[in-house]
Amino acid sequence: MGLKVQIFLLVISIRSVVTRVEAYNQDFAPLKSLLDDWNSTLSSWISSNPCADNWEGIGCTNSRVTSIKLSSMNLVGELSGDIQSLSELQTLDLSYNKGLTGSLPSSIGNLKELSTLILVGCSFTGLIPESIGSLRQLVFLSLNSNSFSGPIPPSIGNLTNLYWLDLADNKLSGTIPVSDGITPGLDMLVRTKHFHFGKNQLSGEIPPQLFSSNMVLIHLLLDSNQLTGSIPSSLGHVQTLEVVRLDRNSLGGPVPSNFNNLSQVKELFLSNNKLTGPLPNLTGMYSLSYVDMSNNSFDASSLPPWVSSFPSLTTLKMERTSLQGEIPVELFSLSGLQTVILRNNQLNGTLDIGSSHSNQLQLIDLQYNLITEFTRRAENNIETKTIILLGNPICEETKTTTEKYCTIQQSNISYSTPPHNCKPASCSSDQISSPSCKCAYPYTGTLYFRAPSFSNLGNSSVYIPLQEKLMLSFNLHELLVDSVSLSNATKNLEDYLLLSLEVFPSGQEHFNRTGISWIGFVLSNQTFKPPPNFGPFFFIAAEYSHFAEVSKQTNKSSIGIIIGAAVGGSVLVLLLLFAGVYAFKQKKRAERVTKRNDPFASWDCSKHSGGIPQLDKARCFSFEELKKCTNNFSEKNAIGSGGYGKVYRGTLPTGQLIAIKRSQEGSRQGGNEFKAEIEMLSRVHHKNVVSLVGFCFDKSEQMLVYEYVPNGSLKESLSGKSGIKLDWMRRLRVALGAARGLAYLHELVNPPIIHRDIKSNNILLDSHLNAKVADFGLSKVMSDADASHISTQVKGTMGYLDPEYYMTQQLTEKSDVYSFGVLILELVTARKPIEKGVHVVREIRQTMDKNKELYNLQGIIDPNFGLGITLKGVEKFVELAMRCVEESRADRPTMSEVVKEIESIMVLAGLNPNADSASTSASYEVASTGSGHPYSNESLFSRSEGFPPAKLDPQ
């Protein structure tokens, strides 16, 4: 027995040696080549094994280097072509190293596994290599703020998985490439959501072929180039757009008449071009918050009526746009209006800003117009606003020249994060007192917001959510950050909002290199999501020279271990061969038995063989991968628990946040059932359905990996637990999103899927408060296309359960319709389906009177809507719910009919059914709840089942 133990230990020892030598042979040499080209003091890059010895900035999987994250490491030199030898590399982030120069090696195109390439804020020059189009796995390409020159490589059009494309702030020239049947182009990037090409030297026309209706583009940034010609009408087909910046070019001709199709656009910049013709008609673009059309050659006209119809408008700039006539007083009644700049026009008559204008209104600049009178009201509180009428007739009269509004008034508005209820510390000359009043060396830099929706830079309330989101993002990645400070809010010449950022370390005076590189990565790869009103951003870090050094190692001991183990292995090689043959036979015998009983035996994730081709876009994870991205499934990353098991938050090497549903012993399905569930979920792809990122069946585990949905469940919002307050219009949007998700499952998935557990716990809200249907643990597939129902044991949640399904055990899509009807009533009342023994459906039926106002439901409707609020369409919404909960399934509508009905209700309420939730209403209010996780104990995976009723989830 002792000999067997010795043999086992020796095998382990030699396997370790082999692993270390392999790592040396495959990845050590190219990394050493990189280091030799950089003037760097990376203190841990001295041993022979980058994976086993935890080199700074290096991430590994199965002893192969898969990520390099070295942002803000003060690297100096060039990027060696030897990087191509890192064949398993998935992430490369060298951002904020101004000392990195030279051109990108064309051999970078050999990194076939690369999904993230970030080189923000370096000093690279030369052409972007055409070989970049060979990186077919690339999702994130960010080369902004360098000195790249020459044309945009057409080969980028081959990157069909690309989500983020940022080439801004370089010296790129030439035209925007589009495909011609032989050569690829950017029009092929229909999945890309971000085109950031501003601050370059691009010329020629914007190709009409660049845009199409099947694109999902949300940010189009072409500002500060040399583009000519007209704005193509095809741009009006991209109805997903939220930010459009075409300013500071030489674009001419009229604005396309279909421009107002872009109903989701929030920030629109057309200024400083040569646009002609009539002022564009923006009627219907109700999401607009920031409009700048200054310095164009439009036909003379009065201020168009649409300027007073945008409920979210904060900023209107129309300088030098040939405006004439009087300014309508209705403009100043917009509740969120902050800035109006209409200088250098021919506006005349009397300026009257009314008495019901926004409390946020700060600046009205009407210099050099023809204003003759100014109506002042006592309630206007003029002293709190900056009004400039210099250069108007009213200021040429002797009696008014002394008025404040006849001078240029300098604004000294600024913001700086205040201390957190403490007195700032007295620090040494090179340290700074943090908001927590501790002296430290912060990581500093500048945040550039390319299209903020606000213009009142002194409004402190807009910066507090930004600070909170920054801290949340750092905490989610378990970074040792004590606090953040924002200051020096300014606008630059491109209308970018600049904010100085200081990030302070926790528990120490300075960061180590690992902490800095991770903070840099969070900011460079857009893991941090700012509040919606800040828009797209990038970060440029200042040099950090206060690293906390880690203890240095020598590579002598590593080499000695390798040599000693190798000698020992040579002495016992014959014995190992004998033991190996015996072990091999035993292993083969065990594998044959396991394979017969394992439904996953044919699923070879590494080769995508066997059953894997049946899956669509679902990744097979190893246990070690998920263990690593959750910090060994630490309790800190646990975000929910229930009868099925636990859900953990994790972070993939790409920076993507995920939610991992891990079953516990005793609650796992059979292997065949788990396999069937994976195959079903992998076919589901819809914006209103939580998507499956992947799965794990390694080491007897059963884990499903979902996209991370940040704002928790609908139930938490309705109950007040999440702190998110949903007004009437947002509830309509949530209902529409959930209905669309269900209609997709019933009618567009082949074969159809019946969810079987629709409830407010299983409707999650994303960062824009869009609804996503979640938890398919009880779902059934209608595999027989001709079948009218599925005969199955009753499972579901008490209160939402279809009574006809309960009585007959026959499941149909109409069972989901019933549950959805209960969900609608929950949205209206914010009550649980069953409270104090009374079902909400019965209570509504008994109370409802169509001959009375609000159908006599005032005492049941959620009081959080507020007194005096007009709930347009609420009666029709309740009627729809009652049709959904008819006792006979034949009397219930289909989900596609429900979708159409909700859309018509939204139109009645003055909403655009195709706009995102967070882009059409005022910013949602989040209260401090003390909860660090968006998932409750039941959301995402809560499973309730059983028959008879005693086993049903009581909610």
- The poorly predicted ranges are 13-25, 550-567, 593-599, 607-613, 918-955
Distance from N terminus to C terminus (CA atoms, Å) equals 57 Å
Overall form: globular
CATH architecture of the largest domain: Orthogonal Bundle
Largest pleated sheet = 15 strands, mixed
Question: What is the strand arrangement across the widest sheet?
Answer: 1-2-4-6-8-10-12-14-16-18-20-22-24-26-28
Counting DSSP E segments of at least 2 residues, the number of strands comes to 48
Estimate percent helicity. 10-25%
Number of domains: 6
The CATH fourth-level homologous superfamily of the largest domain: Transferase(Phosphotransferase) domain 1
In the CATH hierarchy, what is the class of the largest domain?
A: Mainly Alpha
CATH fold naming of the largest domain: Transferase(Phosphotransferase), domain 1
Q: Which class best fits the helix and strand makeup?
A: alpha/beta
- Strand proportion: 15-25%
Kindly state the mean pLDDT as a whole number?
83
Radius of gyration: 31 Å
